[in-house]
Design brief:
Structural class: mainly beta
Radius of gyration: 13 Å
CATH superfamily: Nucleic acid-binding proteins
Helix content: 10-25%
Strand content: 35-45%
Number of domains: 1
CATH architecture: Beta Barrel
Shape: globular
Oligomer: single chain
Largest sheet: 7 strands, mixed
CATH class: Mainly Beta
Number of helices: 2
């Protein structure tokens, strides 16, 4: 059975658990509730709805992100939803 777009979106979304700026890594939790470290390096670009926001210092624990990487380019971290947007959601 083919994966639906909703399933793919949920699989690709990651929750930021910890930002390790000095080490150039972020710890994230995926759909399976397992945590893993993602090495980003100093060249990582964080992109949010408010525009490109810089490096790892722009991330916060609780942000929901998607990591896009292409060979030869710096990883691009797309902020899907900020932690403060999650907390003010009408879903609560």
């Amino acid at each position: 059975m083919a994966e639906s777009i909703t399933e793919r979106l949920q699989r690709d979304r990651l929750l930021v658990v910890e930002v390790l700026k000095e080490a150039g890594r972020i710890r994230v939790k995926g759909a399976g509730d397992s945590c893993r470290d993602v090495s980003c390096g100093a060249a990582a670009i964080v992109d949010a709805s408010e525009g490109p926001t810089g490096g790892l210092e722009a991330l916060n624990p609780g942000d929901i992100i998607r990591v896009e990487s292409e060979p030869g380019n710096a990883p691009r971290i797309v902020v899907v939803r900020r932690v403060w947007e999650e907390l003010t959601s009408p879903e609560f």
